[in-house]
Write a structure and sequence with these properties.
The protein contains 13 helices and 26 strands. It has 578 residues and is α+β, with helices and mostly antiparallel strands.
Length: 578
Amino acid sequence: MGTSRRSFLKSGFIAGLMGAFARTGLAEPQVKIVPLKIRYTPLANPISDLRERYDVVVIGSGYGGSVSAARLAGRCRVAVLERGPERPPGSFSEKFEDVRNDIRCKKNPFGLFEVHANHEMDVLNGNGLGGTSLINAGALVRPDRETVRSPEWPQALVEEVHSGQFEKYYSRVKSMLQGQAFDPRRMSSAKVRAHEYASHELGVEVKFPPVAVNLYGEQAQQPGVTQPKCIECGNCCSGCNTGAKNTLNMNYLPLAKNQGAEIFTQIEVLWIEKLTAGYRIHCLYVSQNGERIRKSVLAKQVIVSAGTMGSTKLLLNSQEHGLSLSEKLGQRFSGNGDVLGLSFNTAFRTNAIGFSSASRIRVDMKPGAVIYSIADYRNKKNLFDRFIIEEGTFPGAFTIPLRLAMGVAKFRISASRYLRVGRDITLSKDIEKGALNYSMVYLGMGHDRADGKLQLDRKGRIRVHWPEVKHDPIYPTIDRAMKVQSRALGGNFVMNPRTLIINGKNLVTVHPLGGCVMADSVKNGVVNHLGQVYQADGSLHAGLFVLDGSIVPTALGVNPLLTISALSERAIERMQIT
């Protein structure tokens, strides 16, 4: 194949840049070395403390599980069973090679990142004490009231949400997670300025949601938990190494512990057996040296809070072992309309690259928390036309592969911007002048049709089956809006950056919902409005509940953690302890 004159000149230009950068000593951004001072009290009990019997066993320690444990401890004897390890601040990977080795799989059950690769949509969730709170952005966004609607949602919830009675649960969660919003009078952010510029050019309102991060100073959480001020490192989604992020092991879980809950990590629940009175929980404990030990625990009541993928898998396994459940189990899966996008090499410096280390603070190039601002497109009459676009950051551990991958991607770029690309593909030390530091990360959320299905494959793995998702209009709608945002910044839009690293055009969700959805009857769902599980005949299992994202029957169109936590607060408040 011949080489065009333009390609030849471009290659020669880049090669010349590479040689120039190789010969020139370029200074890194100004860096301040600040040794980490972590104050963290471990929460996990040794496995030898595990009792034969509890009043309540909570399976999982994400938002639903942590809320449940915190509110029930002190009222009865509670155990929390978490399959992942405890990950205190300071223990999270900061290099790409370490992140690659931190992916959960059969050989590495302690990996922080769990990736469910599927044919149409991939799913990413966290693994550890605190669940996905360890790697999410922590944005506390209330969905539109119209989201909670009949007939998809139980009537009791529809009435409470639309009357305003449900608001107290949102407030309770915000108070516990101590959400703080970006205030342009007190903080400065280059990525926010760029996001505001593009949105205002397009006539789109920008909002600053509270995020579960200590933006403005040290603060005390539960007794024994004091958190420092955020250093704005941008690494919320790869694990906060300073302790400034309000993950669940900083609030709800210490509250549960202080009230007497016993917390066990590295123990995965395989299936649940119903007894004449209560339940037997079949588990697999994995020791630090890899030894696998079968265990079982008895409980009067069980709260399944293993996350959308984990809870659905657990109930499917339990159904195979004889537990009577709704035929709707696994249905109504939603990706929450999640869309990832990237505006590359814009006209605006965004400083969106995370620090290489939490102890190396770039004084003049702070990315900030992962999410500060939202471009709000929810002023549409039709719910399915509403969505939001949030700006984000590149975790520091991914900086080198992203600089290289984006640098060799084929884009139409003006000659003046090739200099930035050259800095990136040569891994020049002056990272602030590279093309990646003039790029914007986007995360969009909207209302998909929630008609996916979760099922077990022949190896017992949970899989998403959703061939129709490619025809759901919300995804191209958000893509087009991101492209227009990118154009306003003068950038090159990359639809679904996954394709740069892995072949294929799968959608990716970090907010999986559904699979064990709530409904007014067994004909339409798996649990009732309080998360109590239906038997196949429509009666309720005494003392068996599901409380996490799997019970949400539709997309929420915003970050779901606030809603999941509020639903859990409401359910636990009304739960009768046997």
